[in-house]
């Protein structure tokens, strides 16, 4: 596409053509420059710049996103992305050993090992993409590297990768996440003692799995609308999802209809291993979530309290599965930013619960907080 006197190849774009296909509205996105919008005339092969959708970000330096592959413990090749903090100095290919040279040329090897957040996508029949993402921009601006993994069970990488995830919830799918973390540690990217796990929906489940099935791997975890008990999760599916029950049972590796199937779901549910949590945990939940009910978070919080394990639970009263209202979104970021600061030591903007007039109730149980107005008593709220 010609823009001015230059020709560009758009590798990441969406197009919205008119009825005769001669005039296109083209949006171009990259990790460092989100959503430029062009008007493209096919006949003239000419694109005219219209506007930026996030012009307020022009004054900020955004992080580069680097895609790479690694080999999981069973030999399967997995694709992943890493974003380093935008001002983090990098080692050149001449600075590193021959084994790290290719990664250094990609711009993946920092001078200093990083605090890192493993950000797990939902679905799990979804995938992480190249391009700008608000959460990644927020985390990298606070000094965290961000690792995102298209673990087995992810889509758009072919049937082999998707089928390799069938029946592997909390097992090989989780192994892929652990192997990705190990890859970053072995290659000088992440600091082993400063890795957090965070995600929404399946990503929230993965965070709970991380803190129960592998309790020594992560420094802390953030679960947003993640199921904790796969039996209660399946029993509470909304009616319009019942046609998908058999598929869910297949990909999870168990069912609620047989004794053996229920045993499998129990074995894959963090709820039944709540007593193994030893690292700080932040749980956020939408009260109106039809996919993952409020009970999924509350029962896990109650199990932690029964074992005298600290937890912070934030219930957003007017949100569903994905938080949409701007005050709540700001508060969501405020909560996890402050939590990660206390866990990993990254930068944060001071946040007081309620400062955005969000519709949320905060409960804590034994977690020491720092001047944020949140009650420290067991089950206390505000």
Describe the structure in your own words.
- This protein has 382 residues and is an alpha/beta fold.
- The chain contains ten helices and 15 strands.
- The protein is globular, with a radius of gyration of 22 Å.
- The protein starts with a strand and ends in a 17-residue tail after the last strand.
- The relative contact order is 0.09.
- The model is unreliable at 366-382 (pLDDT under 50).
Distance between the termini: 55 Å
Instruction: Please outline the major beta sheet.
Output: 9 strands, mixed
Structural class: alpha/beta
Strand content: 15-25%
Give the assembly state of these chains. single chain
How many strands appear in the DSSP assignment? 15
Q: What is the H/E order?
A: EEEEEEEEHEHEHHEHEHHHEHEHE
> Which shape, going by the Cα principal axes?
globular
Structure annotation, total helices: 10
- Order of neighbouring strands in the sheet with most strands: 7-8-10-9-11-12-13-14-15
Mean pLDDT reading = 89
Q: What portion of residues is helical?
A: 25-40%
As residue ranges, the low-confidence spans are: 366-382
Radius of gyration: 22 Å
